[in-house]
TrEMBL record:
<dbReference type="InterPro" id="IPR003780">
    <property type="entry name" value="COX15/CtaA_fam"/>
</dbReference>
<protein>
    <submittedName>
        <fullName>Putative Cytochrome oxidase assembly protein</fullName>
    </submittedName>
</protein>
<keyword id="KW-0350">Heme biosynthesis</keyword>
<dbReference type="Pfam" id="PF02628">
    <property type="entry name" value="COX15-CtaA"/>
</dbReference>
<keyword id="KW-1003">Cell membrane</keyword>
<feature type="transmembrane region" description="Helical">
    <location>
        <begin position="315"/>
        <end position="334"/>
    </location>
</feature>
<feature type="transmembrane region" description="Helical">
    <location>
        <begin position="43"/>
        <end position="63"/>
    </location>
</feature>
<dbReference type="GO" id="GO:0016491">
    <property type="term" value="F:oxidoreductase activity"/>
</dbReference>
<dbReference type="InterPro" id="IPR050450">
    <property type="entry name" value="COX15/CtaA_HemeA_synthase"/>
</dbReference>
<feature type="transmembrane region" description="Helical">
    <location>
        <begin position="146"/>
        <end position="166"/>
    </location>
</feature>
<feature type="transmembrane region" description="Helical">
    <location>
        <begin position="283"/>
        <end position="303"/>
    </location>
</feature>
<keyword id="KW-0560">Oxidoreductase</keyword>
<keyword id="KW-0479">Metal-binding</keyword>
<feature type="transmembrane region" description="Helical">
    <location>
        <begin position="340"/>
        <end position="359"/>
    </location>
</feature>
<feature type="transmembrane region" description="Helical">
    <location>
        <begin position="172"/>
        <end position="193"/>
    </location>
</feature>
<keyword id="KW-0812">Transmembrane</keyword>
<feature type="transmembrane region" description="Helical">
    <location>
        <begin position="205"/>
        <end position="224"/>
    </location>
</feature>
Length: 388
């Protein structure tokens, strides 16, 4: 478990030198310009791709203990890159007695790359919202709800990213930051589907719709439980599979394990969290995995009854099998980084495909704006204004 007592003195607020801030702003302007010029379908698809990358890289940050690699925000020791903060990082490494602590050049770069990707996504969402509003103002039939919901959510997600650092990796905050990334991916996927005409909605029974929604919600809760395992460093609390420490009824302290508002490694009263609490966290994740698997398989059975949805059902079933195998392997092979990151990535991919499934079975075919209603609207209107 990470020893936060080795963390160096930090600045728990916005800390960025004016020159470094200018570099950040210049990067944002460049991304915004690209977002304004890019065709709308490509922009939405890029948003989904980058958000998926962000979720997976966030897992890498968490699993490599890099969350405090740069202990201020949004820069790294008031600099734009860890290379520019080399002196401060070296001092921190010396003070904590080596690179095994919270700060190291590697961890600083991991944390900052995560922030760079998040910045790109935020800027692209701003560009999308501005383009949608511009097109709506000039007579296009554009719904503004989802673009501005994405904008609001990415701002909230940025705040959770800052709180993750400033609250010293408090487990609930880090887990909610993970779930915020998953929800951002779901919103982006929903927006992406609304801008596709090749994957129309499929009329299905109420039972299939309910099962698909249940699969989405169960998988989301299972991801939360997995995040709770990771942020509490409880992955190795249970040895063996499918049993936990050789038993199907391991000694577990459920009250301690699922007391959410507390510091990392501590109970609310400041005492050290017990091994039995970590066992409860790990065993709870495993038990609910059984429930989630049954619900997902039932939903996939329902989806497979409709020809346009069979391939999607097949992919989700395959991913479920892979996810179970990865979960078992993480335990059996003592939590290797590659398998743990893959376990997180497959979970995010399942949520992406389940969101697509929910969209495709949800209600009758809705009237969608044409693909080009906002794609080049900003550029076209700008050019028209210049000609006049």
């Amino acid at each position: 478990m990470t020893n936060l007592s080795t963390a160096v003195p930090t600045v728990w607020s916005f800390s960025l030198h004016w020159l470094q801030a200018g570099m950040w702003v210049a990067g944002l302007v460049l991304i915004l310009w690209a977002g304004f010029r890019m065709r709308w379908p490509k922009l939405v698809a890029l948003l989904v791709f980058l958000t998926m990358d962000l979720v997976m890289f966030g897992a890498f940050v968490r699993l490599t203990d890099s969350g405090l690699g740069c202990p201020d925000w949004p820069g790294c020791y008031a600099h734009f890159t860890p290379a520019q903060a080399h002196h401060q990082i070296s001092e921190a490494v010396a003070e904590q007695g080596g690179t095994q602590g919270n700060v190291s050049p590697f961890k600083a770069w991991v944390e900052m790359i995560h922030r760079y990707i998040a910045t790109i996504i935020g800027a692209l969402i701003v560009a999308m919202a501005v383009r949608a509003a511009w097109a709506r103002k000039h007579g296009r039939n554009i719904a503004l709800g989802l673009p501005f919901l994405l904008l609001g959510w990415v701002i909230l997600q940025g705040l959770f990213g800052a709180w993750t650092v400033t609250l010293l990796l408090k487990p609930l905050i880090v887990t909610l930051h993970l779930m915020g990334g998953i929800i951002l991916l779901m919103l982006a996927a929903w927006f992406w589907m609304r801008n596709r005409s090749d994957l129309p909605k499929v009329p299905t029974s109420t039972l299939v719709q309910a099962l698909t929604w249940a699969a989405l919600l169960a998988t989301g809760w299972q991801i939360f439980l997995g995040g709770w395992v990771s942020t509490n460093y409880a992955a190795l609390a249970c040895t063996g599979f499918p049993t936990c420490n050789g038993s199907f009824h391991p000694a577990a302290n459920w009250a301690q394990g699922f007391t959410f508002w507390r510091n990392l490694g501590e109970n609310p009263d400041g005492s050290a969290i017990s091994l039995q609490a970590l066992v409860a966290i790990q065993w709870g994740h495993r038990l609910f995995a059984v429930v989630t698997s049954v619900i997902v398989l039932a939903a996939m059975w329902g989806l497979s009854r409709y020809q346009p949805l069979r391939r999607l059902a097949g992919w989700l079933t395959a991913l479920l099998v892979v996810q179970i195998a990865l979960g078992a392997s993480v335990v059996l092979f003592a939590h290797p980084l590659e398998l743990a990151v893959a376990h997180n990535g497959v979970a995010a991919l399942m949520m992406l495909l389940l969101t697509i499934a929910v969209y495709r079975v949800s209600g009758a075919q809705s009237r969608q704006a044409s693909l080009d209603d906002a794609s080049l609207a900003f550029v076209n209107i700008e050019r028209a204004s210049a000609k006049s």
